[in-house]
Amino acid sequence: MVNNLMKLLKPAVAAMLWCVVQPALAILPIEQWQTGSGAKVYFVMNRSLPMLDVSVDFPAGSGNDSKQKSGVAALANGLLRQGADGLSEDDIARGFADIGAGLGGRFDADRAGLSLRTLSDPKQRIPALELLTRILRAPEFPTAVVEREKARQIGALKEADLKPDTQAARIFAQLVFRDHPYALRSVGEVATIGDVTRDDLLAFYRRHYVAERAVVAIMGDVSRQQAEAIADQLTRGLPRAGGAVPGLPAVAPLQGAITRIVAHPASQSHILIGAPGIRRDDPDYFTLFVGNHILGGGGFVSRINEEVRQKRGMAYSAYSYFSPQLAAGPFVIGMQTRRDQADEALAVARKTLRDFINNGPTEKELLAARQNIVGGFPMRIDSNRKIHEYLAVIGFYGLSVTYIDDFIGNVERVTVAGIKAAFARHVDPDKLVTVVVGADKDQTVAAAR
C-alpha cells in the first residue's frame, strides 16, 4: 500500500514543483530596442512587486587601460557617484537615502556601469532616476576627491600585495595574458595610480561612457512606454562617440607550459593552474559549462574536489572554472594546501585534468550534472534582481533575447562526446600556467617557448 501511495504522490509532487517553476519563467519574454541616441535597451515588465531595477553599462572596464595609466578605468567608475552636476558625494548619498533607493556599481575587465534599485511609485522613482541621470551625464571628478581616492587605493594595494592569494592571482594573470590588457590588474598598480590625473579621468569618461555603446537593462513595475522614457532619459545627455574605439585584441594561446613558484611565509601554498579559455559568445559555452561542473565547478561532487579534498584531504576546497569575456577569459583550477603537500596536490590536479580531457566524463556524471544544473535553474531567476542581472549580461555580450528560455534546452543537449571534444579544443594540458605562492624560495620551473 505504501508503494502504491508513493506512485500516486510522485506525479502530484512533480506537478507542484512545475507550478513553482512556472511563475519564475512566466515574466519572460525580454523586450529589446534602441534609443534615439543609439543605446541598446533590454526590458522585462513585472507588476507583481512595486520595485524597479535599472542599470546602464558601458564597455569601459579595465581592459581599456594602458600599462602606463593602469587604474584609470576603475577610478573613473568609482568616482562617478562622488560628485556630479553640482552635487557633492554627500548630496548624492543623501538624495538616494532620503527616498529609500539604492545606487550600485559594476566593474570588471570588460564592463563598467551603475545600477539603481528603487520603489516604482513615482514619488520615489522619478527623483531616483533624476539623480542617476545627473551622475551619468555630468560627473565632475573633483580634484580633492580624486587625490583622496588615489591615496586610498594605493594604500589598499600595498596591503593586498602582502597576501599570498593576491600575489598568485596577479602573477597568474600576467603569465596567462602577457601583453594583453587582461594581464593588467583591474584596480591598477601602486606605480601607475599616482600618475593618474583628473584630465585622464575626464578623457576616459568622454571616450568610453558614450551613448552609442551603452546597454540599459530595466526590470520591474513599469510599462513599455515608461521603460522607453526611462532609457531615453538616462542616455540622452551622455557623450557621443567621436569615432570607432578599437576593440579588445584576441588573446594569444600559450606556446608552452610555465611554472612560477614564489617564496612566501604563509603556512599554506596558494595554487592556480590555467590558460586562456573562451569568449562569452563561443559556441562551446554550454558544453564547457556543463563539463566544468563535472570537472571542478560542481562543489563536493566534482572530480577535482573529490580527488584532492575528499580522497586525500589535501585542500579545504579545490575547484575549476571558465570565465568567458569579450576576449578569451581564463580557465582556472585553484586550491590551497599545506606547503609540504603542494607538489602532490599539483600532481593530483594535473592528472585529474589530463584524464578528463583524454576520456571525458561518464554518462552517469553527465546525467547528475544536468539534473543539478536544471534543478537549480529556477533559483537563478527567482527574483527581479537576478533576472535584471541576466538582462545586463545578455545586452552587453549580445546574447539571444531567448537566452533564459533556451538555457535548460542548451544544458540538456550537452553530450559526453561533446564535452570531450570541447575540452580538447580549448584546454591543452601540456600548455598551462602554474603559479604557487607559499614556498621557501622563488623558482621558475619551466619557461614558455
The Cα radius of gyration reads: 24 Å
Low-pLDDT residue spans: 1-27
CATH topology of the largest domain: Cytochrome Bc1 Complex, Chain A, domain 1
Number of domains: 2
According to CATH, the homologous superfamily of the largest domain is: Metalloenzyme, LuxS/M16 peptidase-like
CATH architecture of the largest domain: 2-Layer Sandwich
- Number of helices, counting only DSSP H or I runs of 4 residues or more: 16
In percent, how helical is the residue content? 40-55%
**Mean pLDDT across all amino acids:** 92
- Termini separation (Å)? 70 Å
Please state the structural category: alpha+beta
List the helices and strands and how they pair.
Layout: H1 2-25, E1 31-34, E2 40-45, E3 51-58, H2 72-79, E4 83-84, E5 87-88, H3 89-98, E6 102-107, E7 112-119, H4 122-137, H5 143-160, H6 164-177, H7 190-193, H8 198-208, E8 215-220, H9 224-236, E9 258-263, E10 268-276, H10 285-297, H11 303-310, E11 318-322, E12 330-338, H12 342-359, H13 363-380, H14 384-397, H15 403-412, H16 416-426, E13 433-439, E14 443-446
Helix pairs in contact: 2-8, 4-9, 10-13, 10-16, 11-12, 12-16
